[in-house]
Structures are given as structure tokens and as C-alpha cells.
């Protein structure tokens, strides 16, 4: 209460000033009378009075300069007291200023009793001409003002029919009246009461803070949900594995005691404790080529035996499929793209998945070999966000498989369309993630690496990675991995050398990012680009060694070893360190031949079938069943599953999926 009494006079003065400004005359009288009866001190707003007085003086000076033709004084006051935002952005102010310049340009012609002073007249005309060429140029396309651009070049404007109106008696008084009204509006707006100013400033500030906090909250909730899903999955797998281990240990102890363990008992353990996902994981991890493995698995868990003999999926009518993908409704297109993707992502690795993919490729499902203007690939630019996203997911699924990458790489238009979609997509995060994922997998192939480097994708990646906290985990991880793959090429390193300072700053900032999954790719990119002497010199100048040493103190053993290699590279004096002679040989394709189908491909589905609506495999086999469109699969020599575990940073192209599953780097 004491604080209120201390500032009561000032607060009441603010209320009075606002009522006066808003012209609440009766309310103001009642308010003043009540303050007087209660003995409340009612201070006058000295600030408001001072502003009113100052505004009045400026208006009088402007009008006086207008009447006397004092061009310099007028425009000094005009530019000093009329806000530039109004002069540049308000059409009324621009038109008035144009006519004011005409007024001063012809002032001597209208008000001189004899022949006007030629030197002063030329100076005014020159001033007007300069205005027309600079600030007044914006109105040159307006029909109303177009004739006046010839005024400086007319010898005697007074007799020219186009300017006859300017020299008639009413023109100057009408212009002055417009000026008075304009000044009245401007200075009334500038005399905003302090109460309103305080409200606007605090309200706007609070609004911006709330928007920032809301954005941070949404991002935090999104990350929280992602981490929660990961935690729940890990926790469930952990409990399952603990249960399996306990059961099997008990079984072993029982055999030591002489008790017989029947196959039926082991089968019940598998059925009770293994989730479907764990059974598939087990099936993928078991080497069926080893003698006795299948027999053992068949005895322990018949579910594993079933995975070995998976039937092929039915053939499809691909001509009808592609026709509906191009001409069908957006909803039908989305369901078809989803079903085709699910065929790839949910099929069992091995013969079943290879047959599905080979059927897609042999029937040119994505129209990669088509020269028609309307093709399935054009769905990447569909007006429907759902269709764009589902097309991007399907392309990413193709790119997740080595044969799929070969198919997509045969035509560079696929790469160009993906690059264009990546740079233009700003509405849908998942679409952008899948496009980026596909491009990252493309970077396993040399010709596509070269094309991406030449298209300036490195500069786009650096620009995006300047603000890593604004990116999803997937976008961040795949952006850094793509950047590393491109930096492994000498042309990519030379691109980085053009913006060495920025690249080094971005990579050094990423070293300390909370997402530890990106560390191998950041280290690999740094190690690679530091083979360029100019980049090493820039890194030394910015104190890169001190930055790296900070992370040595905090990192784990693997991270420390990699950073030590980077520091060693930093001190290297070789002109080219580690660049192979075949670095830019397009004929040599050093792609690591492996498949990396990610669970993220099927996350957060946007569409769900309504009652009676077909989707997934049921939609394909009901409406698009074909005859013998499944072709023989191509046998490929798979890469040896040797996990990268050396001390050096990554020095071969890799995808995050391949790195996590232990494929060679």
C-alpha cells in the first residue's frame, strides 16, 4: 500500500493524460472532480505537455518554411521529425512528399515579381531532379505522377499544358491544407499517452517471450516423447532378456542336477518371453549357413524355423498401380504409397524382401526410366503434404537397400528432385527427414557424391547445422553424416576450404552437442578436411587445438583416441594427407554393399483407413493382384559384418543405420 501512495500522484496523472487523449471529456471532468473531493494529488503530465509544445513548434516551423519557400529548412525538419518508416512505407506520405518537392521546385516561378534568379532556380530544379532519380523513383510507374518526371527538362513549365494546373491559384492552398492534416495526424500519433506506451511495450515484449517459451516447450515435449519411446523400448527388451537369461540359467542348473529339459519346455520359454520383434532380431542374427543351426533353432523355438521358410508375397499389377499413383485421388495415392512401402519395410530380410524389391525395380515402379512429364516421381512435388511425405518415405525405403540405391542412381533427375524438395520443404518435418535420409544413403555412391558436391549441398548443410538445436535428432544425425561423406572427397574438402572459418566453427560447436550419436561423423569430417593446408591454417588461427583438448578431458576413451588423431592431423605439414589417387575416379564405386532398413520409415503415420476402406497388403492384393510380376532376385555379395572399432575417425562413407548395426566404415 505504501508503494501505491508514493506513486499515486503520478499514476493519477497517467490516467488523466489517457482520458484527455481519448477525448473522454465527461469522464475526465468526473474523474478530476472526484480526485479533488477526495483530496487526491492530480499531477499534470509534464512529459505530455512538453511533447505537445514541441510538436506545435515543429508544425509551425514546417508550415512557415512551406509558405516562405525555404526548401532546405523544410526538408531538414521533414526528414528529422517524420519517421522514416512512414515516409518510406505510407503511400499518402509518399504522394504528399512528391507534391511538396514540386511546390519548392516551382516556387520561384510562381512567387517572383520579375524574372526569377536563374542560379537559384537551377539549384531547385536540380534538387527536384535528384529526388526523382532516388526516392521519387518508386512512383515512376504511377500514372498520376508520370508527367512530372519531365518537369526538370521543360524550358518554361508555366506555359506547358501538362503543368497548367500547378500554376493555378487553388493548387498551393490545397496542398498546404493536405500538409496541415497530415502533420496533425502524425504528431497526434506521436503524442501517445505514457499509459498506452507502457501497455504496448510490455504487451509486445510478453507476447514475444511467450511465443519463444511455447516453441521451446513444443520442441522439449517432442524430444521428451522420442526419448520416452526409446526408453520404453529399451526397458521392455531389457526385461525380456533378463527373463530369458534367468529361464535358461535355471534350465542349465537343472541339467547339472540330472533333470531332463524337454524341447516343449524351451519352446514355451520362447513363446512366453520373446516378442515378435525379438524373434525377428534373433532370426536376423542367427547364421543359418552353419551346420546344425537350423536344427537347433527348430528344436528350441519353432518360430525361428518359420522365418527361414518365408513364402513370397503375391505378384501385383504394376501398370494399374502406376496409373492410379499418377491419376488417382490424393487419398488413394497416399494409401498406395504406404502399402508399397510397408511391403519393403515389413517383408522378411532375405529372399522375400529381395523379391519384392526386384519386382519394383524390374517394373520401374518409380518411373526412373520414364521421360513422361507425368510420372510417379513427380509425387515428390505434389500439392498434398501427405502424398509428398509418403513419396519421400518410399524413396527413403528404396535408398535403404543397396539394390534400391543402384536403381535410383541410374538417373540423376531423382537426385535433383530430392535436392530441390530438401531445400523447398519447410512445412513437413518428416518429409524433409526422409528426403535427407535418402540423400545421405545416396552419398555412399561416388557419382552421386560428386553431383551433390557440385550442386553446393555442402553449403546448404553448413547453413542448416549452424542452429542444431532447431533440428530433430534424425535431421541432425543424417545431416552431419551426409556432410562427412561429402567431405571425404577431395572436391568436397576444396568446397569446405572456400568457407573454412564457418565450417570449422560449425563442426567445433557440434563436438559439444548433447546428441552423442553425431560424434563419429563430426570427428570424421574434421579429420578429413584438415588434410587441406589452408583449412589447417585457419583451424590453428582460431585455436582449434585448445577446443579439442577441452573435449579430451570430458570424452570417453574412444572419443579421446579420435580427437588425438585429429590433433595429429592438425599439426601435419603434408600438402595432401590421406587423399587417395582414386579419390575422384567415378568408375570406382566403393559403396559398402549393405542394407539398413530403419524403423523410423514407418513412424507417425498420417492416414488411417475408415470403416470399409482398404489399406496395406489387403489393398494391394484385393485391387492390384497381378500375374507373375515377381522376377528372380539378384544375388549380391554382402559385406562382411565387421564393426568399426579402430581409434581413427571415420574415413569411409557410412550411413547412421549402417554404423549403428556394425557394418564396415
TrEMBL record:
A biological process (GO) of this protein is:
cilium assembly
The record's listing under InterPro entries reads:
ARM-like, ARM-type_fold, ARMC9, ARMC9_ARM_dom, ARMC9_CTLH-like_dom, ARMC9_LisH, LisH
Q: Where is the ARMC9 CTLH-like domain?
A: 57-188
Region of interest (Disordered), ranges: 579-602, 645-665
Judging by the UniProt lineage, the source's domain of life is Eukaryota
Alphabetized, the UniProt keywords read: Cell projection, Cilium biogenesis/degradation, Cytoplasm, Cytoskeleton
**Protein location:** Cytoplasm, Cytoskeleton, Cilium basal body; Cytoplasm, Cytoskeleton, Microtubule organizing center, Centrosome, Centriole
Q: Which residues cross the membrane?
A: none
Q: Which intervals carry biased composition (Acidic residues)?
A: 580-602
Domain named LisH: residues = 452-570
One Pfam entry for this protein is: CTLH_Armc9
Q: Name one GO cellular component term.
A: centriole
**Subunit structure of this chain's protein:** Interacts with TOGARAM1, CCDC66, CEP104, CSPP1 and CEP290. Interacts with NDUFAF2.
The identity of this protein, by name, is: LisH domain-containing protein ARMC9
Amino acid at each position: 500500500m505504501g508503494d501505491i501512495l508514493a506513486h499515486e500522484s503520478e499514476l493519477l496523472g497517467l490516467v488523466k493524460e489517457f482520458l484527455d487523449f481519448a477525448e473522454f471529456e465527461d469522464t475526465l471532468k468526473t474523474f478530476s472532480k472526484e480526485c479533488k473531493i477526495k483530496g487526491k494529488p492530480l499531477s499534470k503530465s509534464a512529459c505530455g505537455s512538453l511533447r505537445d509544445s514541441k510538436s506545435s513548434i515543429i508544425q509551425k516551423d514546417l508550415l512557415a518554411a512551406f509558405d516562405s519557400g525555404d526548401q532546405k529548412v523544410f526538408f531538414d525538419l521533414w526528414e528529422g521529425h517524420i519517421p522514416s518508416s512512414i515516409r518510406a512505407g505510407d503511400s499518402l506520405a509518399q504522394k504528399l512528399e512528391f507534391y511538396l518537392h514540386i511546390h519548392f521546385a516551382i516556387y520561384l516561378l510562381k512567387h517572383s515579381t520579375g524574372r526569377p534568379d536563374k542560379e537559384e532556380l537551377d539549384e531547385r530544379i536540380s534538387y527536384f531532379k535528384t529526388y526523382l532519380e532516388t526516392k521519387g523513383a518508386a512512383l515512376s510507374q504511377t500514372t498520376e505522377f508520370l508527367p512530372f518526371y519531365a518537369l526538370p527538362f521543360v524550358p518554361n513549365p508555366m506555359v506547358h499544358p501538362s503543368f497548367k494546373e500547378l500554376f493555378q491559384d487553388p493548387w498551393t492552398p490545397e496542398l498546404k491544407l493536405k500538409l496541415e492534416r497530415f502533420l496533425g495526424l502524425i504528431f497526434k500519433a506521436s503524442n501517445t499517452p505514457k499509459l498506452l506506451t507502457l501497455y504496448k511495450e510490455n504487451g509486445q515484449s510478453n507476447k514475444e517471450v511467450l511465443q519463444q517459451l511455447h516453441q521451446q516447450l513444443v520442441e522439449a515435449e517432442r524430444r521428451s516423447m522420442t526419448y520416452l519411446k526409446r526408453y520404453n523400448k529399451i526397458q521392455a527388451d531389457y526385461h525380456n532378456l533378463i527373463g530369458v537369461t534367468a529361464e535358461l540359467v535355471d534350465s542349465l542348473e537343472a541339467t547339472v542336477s540330472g533333470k531332463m529339459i524337454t524341447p516343449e519346455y524351451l519352446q514355451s520359454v520362447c513363446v512366453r518371453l520373446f516378442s515378435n520383434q525379438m524373434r525377428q532380431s534373433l532370426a536376423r542374427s542367427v547364421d543359418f549357413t552353419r551346420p546344425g543351426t537350423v536344427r537347433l533353432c527348430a528344436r528350441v523355438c519353432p518360430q525361428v524355423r518359420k522365418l527361414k521358410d518365408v513364402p513370397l508375397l503375391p505378384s501385383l499389377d504394376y501398370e494399374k498401380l502406376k496409373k492410379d499413383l499418377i491419376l488417382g485421388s490424393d487419398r488413394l495415392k497416399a494409401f498406395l504409397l504406404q502399402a508399397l512401402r510397408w511391403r519393403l519395410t515389413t517383408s522378411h530380410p532375405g529372399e522375400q524382401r529381395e523379391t519384392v524389391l526386384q519386382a519394383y525395380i524390374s517394373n520401374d515402379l518409380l518411373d526412373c526410366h520414364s521421360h513422361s512429364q507425368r510420372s510417379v516421381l513427380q509425387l515428390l512435388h505434389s500439392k498434398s503434404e501427405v502424398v509428398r511425405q509418403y513419396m519421400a518415405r518410399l524413396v527413403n525405403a528404396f535408398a535403404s537397400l543397396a539394390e534400391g540405391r543402384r536403381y535410383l542412381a541410374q538417373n540423376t533427375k531423382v537426385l535433383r528432385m530430392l535436392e530441390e524438395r530438401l531445400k523447398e520443404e519447410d512445412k513437413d518435418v518428416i518429409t524433409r527427414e526422409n528426403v535427407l535420409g535418402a540423400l545421405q544413403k545416396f552419398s555412399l555412391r561416388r557419382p552421386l557424391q560428386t553431383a551433390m558436391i557440385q550442386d553446393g549441398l555442402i553449403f546448404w548443410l553448413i547453413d542448416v547445422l549452424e542452429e542444431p538445436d532447431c533440428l530433430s535428432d534424425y535431421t541432425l544425425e543424417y545431416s552431419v553424416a551426409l556432410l562427412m561423406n561429402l567431405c571425404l572427397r577431395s572436391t568436397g574438402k576444396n568446397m569446405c576450404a572456400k568457407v573454412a572459418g564457418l565450417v570449422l566453427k560449425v563442426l567445433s560447436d557440434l563436438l559439444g552437442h548433447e546428441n552423442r550419436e553425431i560424434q563419429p561423423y563430426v570427428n570424421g569430417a574434421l579429420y578429413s578436411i584438415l588434410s587441406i593446408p589452408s583449412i589447417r591454417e585457419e583451424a590453428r588461427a582460431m585455436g582449434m587445438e585448445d577446443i579439442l583438448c577441452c573435449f579430451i578431458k570430458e570424452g570417453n576413451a574412444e572419443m579421446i583416441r579420435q580427437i588425438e588423431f585429429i590433433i595429429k592431423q592438425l599439426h601435419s605439414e603434408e600438402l595432401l594427407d590421406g587423399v587417395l589417387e582414386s579419390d575422384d575416379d567415378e568408375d570406382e564405386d566403393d559403396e559398402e554393399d549393405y542394407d539398413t532398413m530403419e524403423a523410423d520409415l514407418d513412424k507417425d503415420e498420417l492416414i488411417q483407413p475408415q470403416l470399409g476402406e482398404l489399406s496395406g497388403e489387403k489393398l494391394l492384393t484385393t485391387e492390384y493382384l497381378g500375374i507373375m510380376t515377381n522376377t528372380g532376385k539378384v544375388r549380391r555379395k554382402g559385406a562382411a559384418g565387421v564393426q568399426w572399432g579402430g581409434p581413427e575417425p571415420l574415413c569411409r562413407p557410412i550411413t547412421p543405420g549402417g554404423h549403428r548395426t556394425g557394418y564396415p566404415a
